[in-house]
């Protein structure tokens, strides 16, 4: 326990040293303030935006978009990937189209979606959903296809009905790869959402950064970089935690 | 019914949904009105393609975007491999740079754009920086893993023949890490391609498929956008396929996985 | 090729002058889970130049560990190991080691793998290709120079590993169950090859094996080790001229004797308590 803490402390030391160095360099006037501001100024900006509620507002709108979009995209991806893996007919029908669309970076769909949907909320949600859809669908497909044949044979032998089969046999077996897919999907969704908000939005972390850039508020831009990084980290860590939990349960 | 087992039937089935979707699209286009703006008739997409191809703009865009992606890829990936090796070989470098690398990696790639915009403007440098960064992340990680997890059984042989550190790196560690390094590079290619399109879209201005799309969006030219999307997918696919070939050649010493 | 003519005149080789291994008071502990575990305890052994010595003993008694120490892969031990009077402090090209698995690098062809052993040798670059080719031919692998390890059979890969170990002409060759992974027929074949090569090169050989018949057939002496901690229990002399007939009745008698010794633990004087091992005590 203590060794774990001290290890983390040791790992953070270079980061803290860098921050101190940066602070010292700024205080010494090494950078003009329009190029780089001191970490203390960034913290001050963060605190100020926190107090006046601006940060919470941007954050909650971004996270709401992420949650809804990711939820829709991941659910669709799970269903689609599983269906494709279970039914050869579905695979023959939708597989080629899926593989072709997968080649296109999601960001390349932005202009098309703007023309189709406008730049309102549903545009952002659809984009986030698409970003989550592809990795999750792929993982679900691979995960279900990876389930050993013997599982299917056992189910056939005992004439297990579809629902218990999905819940009791397929789900546990396919869970680890699917969780990995969900994690990738979540990271992608966050990346694409920030890009969307930079491109066209009236609110959200990305828009906050873009506005700050136009106003040459480098402290706010850096605060945005920090917050978006922190959210990215927490999302990734959260799913990883779930992954570890599930794996432990699986081993037990 | 096992029709979908037949190769010809498979092709037909695979084409069924895309054709249906296109028909639906065309039907929407013919309804006219407000929808016609978004759902352009298929014929005008073909016309847009012909026009873009004939004027040479398509070629210019494709070449610009591809070379931008490849330049960023080469810069970012070589820096990534070097750092990955250094972190894998030297504990001190790992301890010093590792946490910084992992901290910076958490920021969504395009989230750097406003900052980079303030620092170096919206020109080529900003784009290359982002594309390079996209290629950098996965190469560092995979190279590092490959070097650190070098198998004892292999390094023992190196020790037996009195290899120096450099010889060990060249003959044992790097070839042993090659499969992972190549995995990192294939991820780097995908990320670099996404980043190139993304930066071109967000920074607009200049040539490139992303910039063309961005302009077409402003002019509400759905036909041009769709052509650009198709080309983007095609080039991305080609890059991946070519790299997979290269990978297969470089790893020809591995037993077939089949 | 003149390589084959060398085979025909094994007796012509002059007796070797170096390759003498002296092990004195060698002990080795491993730390497992914070506790010190004695693996080798007070090993004393003298191997004469050009002698073929085999080690047999129960699994886990420290045979591989002993070879790794002599090879110089692990330098953390108590006691002394000397080769021709020189203290061993690390790896050197005067000692070769063949592992139980072939350990050829999968990313190199057979030829490159064998050549790699010469990377730091004093042999002039111009001669290296010839020497590599000779050794590949010596182990009947000619024609497979450009093959990758995964394209070779298990026996061929193991012979490749032997070629790689021989190419530096080590004074002392250490073999850790070199033929353990081979099928019975290939095994006999490679044993014969090994004997021919030894008779030609006359380097000192120290081989670990689980196959008592193999040990008796090839060796001048067989060392029987005991476990927990690893010690030398007995040394059996095989005083028969080489090359030997496999069917020699003396060989069979010696084999049975050694097997009997291995199967039935003989009490070491002064430590009778090691003999009776109650399951209850084991569990504690
Ligand atoms: N790196 C290590 N760390 C801790 N313990 C080790 C290590 N290597 C070997 N040991 C222990 O030392 C003992 C001897 O191992 P060694 O590999 O030398 O046995 P061996 O006689 O070669 O057995 P086998 O015939 O099965 O190959 C074993 O109990 C093993 O668990
Ligand atoms: Mg062993």
Automatic annotation (TrEMBL), chain A:
<feature type="transmembrane region" description="Helical">
    <location>
        <begin position="36"/>
        <end position="53"/>
    </location>
</feature>
<feature type="transmembrane region" description="Helical">
    <location>
        <begin position="65"/>
        <end position="86"/>
    </location>
</feature>
<dbReference type="GO" id="GO:0042918">
    <property type="term" value="P:alkanesulfonate transmembrane transport"/>
</dbReference>
<feature type="transmembrane region" description="Helical">
    <location>
        <begin position="161"/>
        <end position="182"/>
    </location>
</feature>
<dbReference type="GO" id="GO:0005886">
    <property type="term" value="C:plasma membrane"/>
</dbReference>
<feature type="domain" description="ABC transmembrane type-1">
    <location>
        <begin position="55"/>
        <end position="243"/>
    </location>
</feature>
<dbReference type="Pfam" id="PF00528">
    <property type="entry name" value="BPD_transp_1"/>
</dbReference>
<dbReference type="GO" id="GO:0010438">
    <property type="term" value="P:cellular response to sulfur starvation"/>
</dbReference>
<feature type="transmembrane region" description="Helical">
    <location>
        <begin position="98"/>
        <end position="118"/>
    </location>
</feature>
<feature type="transmembrane region" description="Helical">
    <location>
        <begin position="189"/>
        <end position="209"/>
    </location>
</feature>
<keyword id="KW-1133">Transmembrane helix</keyword>
<keyword id="KW-0813">Transport</keyword>
<protein>
    <submittedName>
        <fullName>ABC transporter permease</fullName>
    </submittedName>
</protein>
<comment type="similarity">
    <text>Belongs to the binding-protein-dependent transport system permease family.</text>
</comment>
<comment type="function">
    <text>Probably part of an ABC transporter complex. Probably responsible for the translocation of the substrate across the membrane.</text>
</comment>
TrEMBL record, chain B:
<keyword id="KW-1003">Cell membrane</keyword>
<feature type="transmembrane region" description="Helical">
    <location>
        <begin position="39"/>
        <end position="60"/>
    </location>
</feature>
<keyword id="KW-0812">Transmembrane</keyword>
<feature type="transmembrane region" description="Helical">
    <location>
        <begin position="72"/>
        <end position="91"/>
    </location>
</feature>
<dbReference type="GO" id="GO:0055085">
    <property type="term" value="P:transmembrane transport"/>
</dbReference>
<protein>
    <submittedName>
        <fullName>ABC transporter permease</fullName>
    </submittedName>
</protein>
<comment type="similarity">
    <text>Belongs to the binding-protein-dependent transport system permease family.</text>
</comment>
<keyword id="KW-0472">Membrane</keyword>
<dbReference type="InterPro" id="IPR000515">
    <property type="entry name" value="MetI-like"/>
</dbReference>
<feature type="transmembrane region" description="Helical">
    <location>
        <begin position="224"/>
        <end position="243"/>
    </location>
</feature>
<feature type="transmembrane region" description="Helical">
    <location>
        <begin position="128"/>
        <end position="148"/>
    </location>
</feature>
<dbReference type="GO" id="GO:0005886">
    <property type="term" value="C:plasma membrane"/>
</dbReference>
<dbReference type="Pfam" id="PF00528">
    <property type="entry name" value="BPD_transp_1"/>
</dbReference>
<dbReference type="InterPro" id="IPR035906">
    <property type="entry name" value="MetI-like_sf"/>
</dbReference>
<feature type="domain" description="ABC transmembrane type-1">
    <location>
        <begin position="62"/>
        <end position="243"/>
    </location>
</feature>
TrEMBL record, chain C:
<dbReference type="GO" id="GO:0016887">
    <property type="term" value="F:ATP hydrolysis activity"/>
</dbReference>
<comment type="similarity">
    <text>Belongs to the ABC transporter superfamily.</text>
</comment>
<feature type="domain" description="ABC transporter">
    <location>
        <begin position="21"/>
        <end position="254"/>
    </location>
</feature>
<dbReference type="InterPro" id="IPR003593">
    <property type="entry name" value="AAA+_ATPase"/>
</dbReference>
<protein>
    <submittedName>
        <fullName>Sulfonate ABC transporter ATP-binding protein</fullName>
    </submittedName>
</protein>
<keyword id="KW-0813">Transport</keyword>
<dbReference type="InterPro" id="IPR050166">
    <property type="entry name" value="ABC_transporter_ATP-bind"/>
</dbReference>
<dbReference type="InterPro" id="IPR027417">
    <property type="entry name" value="P-loop_NTPase"/>
</dbReference>
<dbReference type="Pfam" id="PF00005">
    <property type="entry name" value="ABC_tran"/>
</dbReference>
<keyword id="KW-0067">ATP-binding</keyword>
<keyword id="KW-0547">Nucleotide-binding</keyword>
<dbReference type="GO" id="GO:0005524">
    <property type="term" value="F:ATP binding"/>
</dbReference>
<dbReference type="InterPro" id="IPR003439">
    <property type="entry name" value="ABC_transporter-like_ATP-bd"/>
</dbReference>
């Amino acid at each position: 326990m203590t060794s774990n803490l001290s290890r983390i402390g040791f790992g953070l030391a270079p980061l803290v040293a860098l921050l101190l160095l940066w602070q010292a360099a700024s205080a010494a006037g090494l950078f003009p303030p329009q190029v780089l501001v001191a970490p203390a100024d960034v913290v001050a900006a963060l605190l100020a935006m926190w107090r006046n509620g601006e940060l919470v507002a941007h954050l909650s709108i971004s996270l709401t978009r992420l949650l809804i979009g990711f939820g829709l995209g991941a659910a669709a991806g799970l269903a689609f990937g599983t269906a494709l893996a279970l039914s050869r007919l579905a695979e023959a029908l939708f597989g080629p189209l899926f593989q072709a669309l997968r080649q296109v970076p999601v960001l390349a769909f932005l202009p098309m979606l703007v023309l189709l949907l406008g730049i309102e909320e549903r545009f952002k949600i659809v984009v986030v959903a698409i970003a989550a859809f592809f990795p999750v669908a792929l993982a679900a497909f691979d995960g279900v296809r990876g389930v050993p044949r013997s599982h299917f044979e056992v189910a056939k032998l005992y004439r297990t009905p579809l629902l218990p089969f999905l819940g009791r046999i397929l789900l546990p077996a396919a869970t680890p790869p699917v969780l990995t897919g969900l994690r990738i999907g979540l990271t992608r969704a966050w990346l694409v959402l920030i890009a969307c908000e930079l491109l066209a939005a009236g609110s959200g972390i990305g828009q906050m950064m873009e506005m700050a850039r136009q106003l040459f508020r480098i402290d706010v831009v850096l605060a945005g970089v920090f917050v978006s990084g922190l959210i990215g980290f927490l999302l990734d860590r959260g799913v990883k935690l779930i992954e570890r939990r599930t794996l432990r349960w699986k081993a037990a | 019914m096992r029709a979908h087992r037949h190769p010809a039937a498979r092709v037909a089935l695979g084409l069924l949904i895309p054709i249906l979707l296109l028909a639906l699209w065309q039907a929407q286009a013919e309804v006219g009105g407000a929808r016609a703006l978004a759902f352009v008739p298929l014929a005008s997409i073909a016309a847009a393609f012909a026009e873009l191809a004939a004027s040479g703009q398509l070629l210019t865009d494709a070449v610009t975007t591809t070379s931008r992606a490849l330049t960023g890829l080469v810069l970012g990936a070589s820096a990534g491999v070097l750092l990955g090796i250094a972190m894998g070989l030297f504990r001190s470098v790992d301890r010093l740079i590792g946490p910084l690398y992992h901290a910076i990696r958490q920021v969504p790639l395009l989230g750097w754009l406003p900052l980079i915009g303030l620092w170096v403007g919206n020109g080529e440098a900003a784009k290359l920086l982002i594309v390079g960064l996209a290629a950098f992340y996965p190469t560092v990680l995979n190279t590092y893993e490959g070097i650190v997890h070098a198998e004892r059984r292999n390094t023992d042989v190196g020790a037996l023949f009195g290899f120096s550190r450099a010889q060990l790196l060249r003959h044992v560690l790097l070839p042993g890490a090659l499969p992972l390094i190549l995995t990192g590079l294939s991820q780097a290619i995908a990320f670099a391609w996404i980043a190139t399109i993304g930066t071109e879209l967000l920074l607009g201005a200049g040539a490139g498929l992303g910039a063309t799309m961005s302009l077409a969006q402003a002019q509400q030219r759905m036909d041009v956008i769709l052509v650009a999307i198709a080309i983007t997918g095609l080039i991305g696919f080609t890059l991946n396929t070519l790299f997979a070939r290269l990978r297969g050649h470089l790893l020809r010493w591995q037993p077939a996985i089949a | 090729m003149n390589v084959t003519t060398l085979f025909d005149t094994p007796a012509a080789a002059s007796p070797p002058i170096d390759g003498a291994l002296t092990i004195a008071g060698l002990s080795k502990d491993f730390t497992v889970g914070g506790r010190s575990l004695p693996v080798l305890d007070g090993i004393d052994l003298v191997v004469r130049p050009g002698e073929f010595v085999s080690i047999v003993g129960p699994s886990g008694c420290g045979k591989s560990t002993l070879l790794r120490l002599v090879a110089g892969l692990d330098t953390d031990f108590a006691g002394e190991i000397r080769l021709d009077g020189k203290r061993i402090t690390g790896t050197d090209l005067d000692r070769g080691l063949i592992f139980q698995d072939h350990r050829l690098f999968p990313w190199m062809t057979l030829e490159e793998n064998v050549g790699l052993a010469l990377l730091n040798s004093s042999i002039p670059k111009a001669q290296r290709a010839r020497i590599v080719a000779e050794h590949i031919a010596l182990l009947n692998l000619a024609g497979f120079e450009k093959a990758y390890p995964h394209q070779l059979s298990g026996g061929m890969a193991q012979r490749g590993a032997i070629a790689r170990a021989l190419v530096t002409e080590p004074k002392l060759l250490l073999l850790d169950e070199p033929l353990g992974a081979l099928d019975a027929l290939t095994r006999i074949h490679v044993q014969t090859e090994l004997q021919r090569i030894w008779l030609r090169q006359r380097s000192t050989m120290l081989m670990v094996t689980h196959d008592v018949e193999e040990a008796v057939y090839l060796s001048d002496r067989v060392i029987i080790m005991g476990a927990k901690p690893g010690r030398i229990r007995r040394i059996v002399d095989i005083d028969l001229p080489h090359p030997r007939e496999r069917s020699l009745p003396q060989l069979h008698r010696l084999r049975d004797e050694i097997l009997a010794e291995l199967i039935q633990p003989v009490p070491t004087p002064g430590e009778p308590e090691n003999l009776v091992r109650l399951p209850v005590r084991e569990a504690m």
